Amino acid sequence: MKMEANIKPNRLFAPQLVGLVSSIDKNGRPNVATLAWITSVSADPPLVSIAVGSTRYTHGCIIHSKEFVLNLPTIDILKEVQLAGSISGRDVDKFKETGLTPVSSIALKTPGVEQCAAHLECKVIDMKEAGDHTLFIGKVVATVCNVEAIRDGVLDISRIKPIMHLGGTLFTTAGEIVDSKNY
Ligand SMILES: Cc1cc2nc3c(=O)[nH]c(=O)nc-3n(C[C@H](O)[C@H](O)[C@H](O)COP(=O)(O)O)c2cc1C
C-alpha cells in the first residue's frame, strides 16, 4: 500500500553521494563545505552541478572566484564531513577546525582537500537561482584521484567507501557491486 508521504521529497531520493566543496574567498582564504546536492550534468564537455544555499559562505566565495573543487570524501573522515557541514567559514577557519588539509590544485587557485580520494577542479560556466539554493554549473578542467580508487574504469568501492547522506545525521556507504548483465 502507498500513501501520500509526509517526508521531505529529497529524503526519498536518497542516499545522496556527499562531496566536500572547497572554495576561496575574496582574500584568497580557503574554505570547505559539505554538499549532498551534487550531480554530473554533461559528459562532453564534463559538467557538474552543485546546489549551494544562498546563506552559505561558500556561495559568496564561488560567486567571487568563479571556481570550486568537488572533493570525494570517504567514510573514514565522516566526523570531519559532518563538522564541515555544521559550521561556517564565515566564522572559523574550517580547514583548521576540521583538521582537513588544503592541497594545491593543477588548474585552479582553489585548493582541494588532501584527505579526499578524488578531486574535480571546476570553473563556473553558469549559475541559476533555484529557490533558496543556487545551481552552479562547473566545467571540470582537471581530475585527480588516488590510483587505488579505480578498478575496471569505475570507483573501487571495496577500497574507497564513499559517504552517502540519508538525512539529518544519518549516512550510509556503498555495499556490493551489482552487474545488471547478471541480475
Ligand atoms: C551531509 C550534509 C549535506 C549537505 N548538503 C548541502 C547542500 O547540498 N547544499 C548546501 O547548500 N548545504 C548543504 N549542507 C549544509 C552546509 O554544508 C552547511 O550549511 C555549511 O555550514 C556551509 O558552510 P559555509 O558557510 O562555510 O559555506 C549539507 C550539510 C551536511 C552535513
From TrEMBL:
Start and end residues of each Flavin reductase like domain: 13-152
SMART domains the UniProt entry points to: Flavin_Reduct
PANTHER family with a match to the protein in the record: FLAVOREDOXIN, FLAVOREDOXIN-RELATED-RELATED
InterPro entries named among the record's database cross-references: Flavin_Rdtase-like_dom (IPR002563), Flavoredoxin (IPR052174), Split_barrel_FMN-bd (IPR012349)
Single GO MF descriptor: FMN binding
Keywords tagged on the record: Flavoprotein
Protein name according to UniProt: Conserved protein of DIM6/NTAB family
Entry cofactors: FMN
Pfam families, alphabetized: Flavin_Reduct (PF01613)
Record flagged with keyword Flavoprotein: yes
